Amino acid sequence: MDLRQLAALVAIADTGTFSAAADALHTVQSNVSTHIARLERELGVTLVDRAAGRLTEEGETVVARARRVSAELEALQADVASLRDEVSGPARMGVIGTTARWLVPAMLSAMEEAHPKVSVSVLEGNNSTLVPALVAGTVDLAVVNAPVDDPDLLLEPLYDEDLVLVVPPDHELAGRSEVRMADLDGHELLLGPSGTAFRSDLDRAARAAGITLRPKVELDGLRLIASLAFEGFGAAVLPSAAIPRWLTGSDAFRRIAISDAGTRQVSVARRRRGLPSAPARALHEVMVEVMRAQASIKEGIHPSR
């Protein structure tokens, strides 16, 4: 087994065909076929179903490990380069959308000042996309909605944020300054799909209040839910960070405190196995510093100690 064989399999997974994989690797298709055949012989399994044009279950397993191998090699190169000079190389992070809006601009500025030779890339998403990317090694760390039930990851709490109700100006509850979860009984809400991290938080709070949340529509993405709520499409329960500072005081919606909804915890996750590269460690350090400084001045956000 050698790195060229693993790279060939990953390229097939990414591009879908042997010929496209060859183009991505700047080689010829016969070389890719040879690498895959040798890898299959060594492992004693079929990794690519040629007839169906997709990886087998064994192939998917090998690709997952191969991505981690590639990430570790990249980290090795970055670590050695950083020992010779200042920290340099790529650092990749994922971040949930409601946090990305206010974290990323300040973080990128701080990274440019502290580590100008680190190339930062940011993937915005939600837990369902960020957690697999982190486990696979596509990103080095991820800011996620806790908890995350994955034994391969370690979580460091960053902050807790209050949950608030956002309603159109003509909503029945619009005149209230504060409500309880029980007051939401019977009201339609814009909600995330059942089983997603934030929806699970809301469902637990609703059960504790003795009610069941009633969806007007289910939408996968807090930023989408927030945007529709701000436009008056419907009421929604949102984390405080979902409401941008420039919208505070808008006449298009009403923000109402919820006294017994609890809070949402946001954490930074990293892989349990493997040492993060020097650029990734630098990004982690700067990101946490910026996050806590920014969170301490935002309404409804409480930095973790």
Order of helices and strands: HHHEEHEHEHEEEEHEHEEEHE
Give the overall shape, derived from the CA principal axes.
globular
Poorly predicted runs are none
State the separation between the terminal residues, measured CA to CA.
46 Å
Q: Could you tell me the radius of gyration in angstroms?
A: 23 Å
List the helices and strands and how they pair.
Elements: H1 3-15, H2 18-25, H3 29-43, E1 48-49, E2 54-55, H4 57-84, E3 89-96, H5 97-114, E4 118-125, H6 127-136, E5 141-146, E6 153-167, E7 178-179, E8 188-191, H7 197-208, E9 214-218, H8 222-230, E10 236-239, E11 254-258, E12 263-271, H9 278-295, E13 301-303
Parallel strand pairs: 3-4, 3-5, 7-11, 8-9
Antiparallel strand pairs: 1-2, 5-12, 6-10, 6-11, 6-12, 6-13
Helix pairs in contact: 1-2, 1-3, 1-4, 2-3, 5-9
Output the keywords.
nine-stranded mixed beta sheet; two-stranded antiparallel sheet; 305 residues
Brief digest:
The protein is of the alpha/beta class and 305 residues long.
Can you put this structure into words, describing what you see?
This protein is α/β, with parallel strands linked by helices and 305 residues long. The chain has nine helices and 13 strands. Strands 3, 4, 5, 6, 7, 10, 11, 12 and 13 form a nine-stranded mixed beta sheet that branches. A two-stranded antiparallel ribbon has the order 1-2. A hairpin with a 4-residue loop joins strand 1 and strand 2. Helix 1 crosses helix 2 and helix 2 packs across helix 3. The chain is globular, with a radius of gyration of 23 Å.
